[in-house]
Amino acid sequence: MRLTNQTNYAIRILMYCCTKDRIASITEIAEFYRLPHPFLLKIAKTLINHGFLEAHRGRNGGVSLAKPAEEISLGDVVRTTEANFELAECFRDDDVTCPLVATCGLSSTLHSALEAFFNVLDGQSIADLAAPNHNIGVLQQLHEAVRTPLATN
User: Fold this and answer.
1) pLDDT tens digits for range 68-86
2) Cα–chain-centroid distance for residue 45?
3) CB atoms within 10 A of CB 24
4) Which of 50, 85, 106, 107 gets the most CB atoms within 10 Å of its CB?
5) How many helices (H) and strands (E) in the chain?
6) Torsion angle, alpha carbons of 13, 19, 25, 29, to 10
7) Highest mean pLDDT among 9-23, 42-56, 96-110, 122-136
8) Dist. CA 53–CA 41, nearest whole Å
9) Rounded CA gap, 94 and 37, in Å?
């Protein structure tokens, strides 16, 4: 299984917002991750519509977490941003041509694997991913330091 860029970037947006004690602009987030602004804006709208982010309008507008990072499950974010989890043909509701679909050991094994996958993701929050030992806050501080001109004497 491979997660889409949309899911990857959604998680990054949430991690970024988790480490900020203020509203973050999509431009700021795009610059930090070196990602396309329009794509991040589209993803942020999805996260807003599903209650992960809150939008703030105005000159100093942007986004912030809509609820505590500890309450945002990685599994919920992945379920929201991924289109489907069809690991094999037998996961589909229609157009299944495999004659073994009702009795196949592969199907039940893949379903168990997908369940285990989500059990792990459900046990992790955005706060866990952005914890100090993962250094996203340090990287943000370095990024801001590089962008801030030095004072001249």
Assistant:
1) 999 999 999 999 999 887 7
2) 13
3) 21
4) 107
5) 7, 2
6) -50
7) 42-56
8) 12
9) 37
